[in-house]
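Newbie here. two chains, one complex. Structure please?
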Amino acid sequence: MNKPLRRIAIFCGLLVLALLVRDNWIQYVQADELKNRDGNHRVLIARYSQPRGNIIVDGQPITGSAETNGIDFKYKRTYKDGPMWAPVTGYASQAYDANQIEKIEDGILTGNDDRLFFNRTIDMITGKKQKGGDVITTLNRKAQEAAFKGLGDKKGAVAALDPRTGKILALASTPSYDPSKIAGATSKDKEAWIGLQPKKAKDDPMLNRALRQTYPPGSTFKVVTAAAALENGKYADIDGPTNSPDPWKLPLSTQPLPNEGDIPCKNASLRQALRYSCNTVFGKLGDDLGKEEMRKEAEKFGFNETIDTPVRAYSSVYPEDMDRPGNAMSAIGQFDNRATPLQMAMVAAAVANDGKLMKPYMVDSLRAPNLNTIEQTDPEQMSQPLSSENAQKLQSMMETVVKEGTGTSAQIPDVTVGGKTGTAQHGVANSKNPYAWFISYAKGDDGSPVAVAVVIEGSNTLRGDIAGGRLAAPIAKGVMQAVLETERDK
Amino acid sequence: MSSSTTNTTTISTAGPPSRRNTELAMLVFAVIIPVFAYANAGLALSDEMPSGMLSYGLGLGLLAAVGHLVVRKFAPYADPLLLPIATLLNGLGLVLIWRLDQSRRLAQRAKDAGMAFAPSAPNQLIYSALGVALFVGVLILLKDHRILQRYTYISMVVALILLILPMFFPARFGARIWITLGSFSIQPGEFAKIIIAVFFSGYLMVKRDALALASRRFMGLYLPRGRDLGPILVVWGMSILILVFETDLGTSLLFFGLFVVMLYVATERTSWIVFGLLMSAAGAVGVATFEPHVQSRVDAWLQPFEVAKNGGSDQIAQALMAFGSGGVFGTGLGQGNSDLIGFAANSDFILATVGEELGLAGTMGLLLLYGLIVERGVRTALAARDPFGKLLAIGLSAAFAIQVFVVAGGVMGLIPLTGMTMPFIAQGGSSVIANWALVAILIKVSDTARRPAPAPAPTTDAEMTQVVRP
């Protein structure tokens, strides 16, 4: 009987072996996936089992932690000036996970990051509780305040960059929400959360408009078209005539492309065309350059690409499939091309930084609980949409816009400011209130310390002349002044 | 065995080593390790030594001591590993159950369901004591395992009664596997497992030649005669039917496995495996087609996370996440969140707590402990001198191995979940008592197997006997 017994012994061994293999599979091979998957409540439990690290602006935390001592969660996230900073921080909720910086840098904030392994080990040996690290942002409190207060109860967004480095200085979106109200797991938080969902709140307060809403860029896109024209060598002299008729008919069509109001656009120079925002000149320019050329230039500015700041900014679009009239319309920002406020701030920043586009970022460094820096973001050049020489020409054009064109309300005494207004029509037959745009930069002693883009969604007060200069430019001016002030105090 | 035969004419009175002192040394560890685990869990949960520490340590120590002394007296040549491993598993089980008793989450869960949350560990300690008492009882009363052979047909009847009885009692948690008497309930399936092994051993020992030899060859397979096969088929069929009506898949699978293994060992015919597997497969497919209960289990196994998302049971998903979250070294006792599994966290799913809190290392260790029990059982079967003992030992070991595989495999998502208890560590009185009895029988068989053969009476003419070679 021993032969079958030995075989049965092998069979039993195989059963145990199968269990061991399976155990290795789920506890080693798949462990991380199972550990961090959605629906694993432990992720949330760990996140709130100790005070969470903070998100820091100008050396001051804009977040905090409060003890709650529930069954699952010991601590709860709190926010200072929640609605103002929400587009930066995102939220961290016991019931609804987290997003943006709270989610992306969760490892640092909870202290679970691999780079904090050494700290954790020391804490474990010395019997201390695990602590979270801090996320130090590039934001500028005063600029953010200027942006958020400037937007007020209007619906819109502001993005401001330091053109020299790509640091994001302000990121505001209105209407906003207070992430403190949804940080817990109580029925009150649930109510607040439901109230914030797009179904209930038609203004979608949780949408980060500065990074994640694309708008038709309107006339601000003419800066890109101008850059393409300069780079192409088509018009080297910004003060020479451009050989453009007025009225100008859209290609392959009998439809004329109208200008806004009675402005001198016939054969206008590039400088004058930008100053008055001539649709005919830039429409024709776009058509002359062609779709490929236009798209290439737009892509150099960052279009058709998502940008991780590290919070992901949605891709702005310059479509590949367009007919000629479409391309011409896109050259004045009125067709299928769309841009986020961050994207348009990047356009202004690239021009202001003598043609070099720096990659935008908002996390300056990550700091361990013991205050050691564990990661430092270094400025990084993303591309060079135009040569330094052409950039200076374009600067001169944009400065004319502010000095004596459509953007005069952005003037700051004793400071060189360049900008471009935009008013984007949208809706069926342009029935909806247009978007008011303004992009600008200010120059300091050492290059340009700030570029900003402001967009305001159709405010119904100014139906007729919503021009970006009236609504958006003052906000941009406030943000630029705030940054210049902090530069001076340095 | 070979050493005992050379022993006949030596003067030395020392027999083959009984290994009782080895067992004692191992038992010390088997008590100390759970005590440390208890302290560990207590410190992690509330930053202080658990108050029941002393009584728990003494209780477990006492059980181990009683077990050891009885083995020393009544089964001196028994396998030295079985008792320590069983003690260790039982001790760890108590710690794990106690640890889950402290869960605020499970307490809240019971409260939300309108039930009082009663800690399970004290009861489990009592059951363990009863288990050890039965262990002692078996060792003392069962002078020789061959006595069981006399009760072959009685065993069959008892096993069938045990299996049929739960049908007349209300179902609990979707399965009709309990006999409820007042506040007291037992799971007869756990005991039936042992008794049916006794029946198969006794029956097959008598019939094995008939089954193996008097067969007709058909398509390369040896088919037994109907009259030899009859009683086995009856038992097999009835157990399937009963189990289908009681919707207890795990036990069903256990009996299939036991049936095939013992037939194969008894007849040494590979064709029996084919035959047995075919019968099992037919049974399984048949059950699966008309049992929605089974179908849902299979779905939950194939797509644990989808089923959980769509409002089905999230137990498997939770168990898998518990295992994954434990990783290689685990969170440490008392520091995991395996109580998220909720229902049956301390019984069917207790292995998930091991996985999360003791990690891959701890779980593999635990599985290897089970493997060792099986290995000692198989070794006992190999060493046993009588066919009944061989069959009984291999039957019990295989039943144990299959049960561990079915439970652990189900909880780890290797096979569909069937709802059985992890021997010794899971909460549940019947299981722990029955498994102590199983270990007692294995110890008894191993004692007989390893006992030196009685010396043959010396014959006076032994020296004068000569072999004459032509």
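Moderator note: The mean pLDDT of chain A is 90. DSSP finds 19 helices and 18 strands in chain A. Thread marked as resolved.
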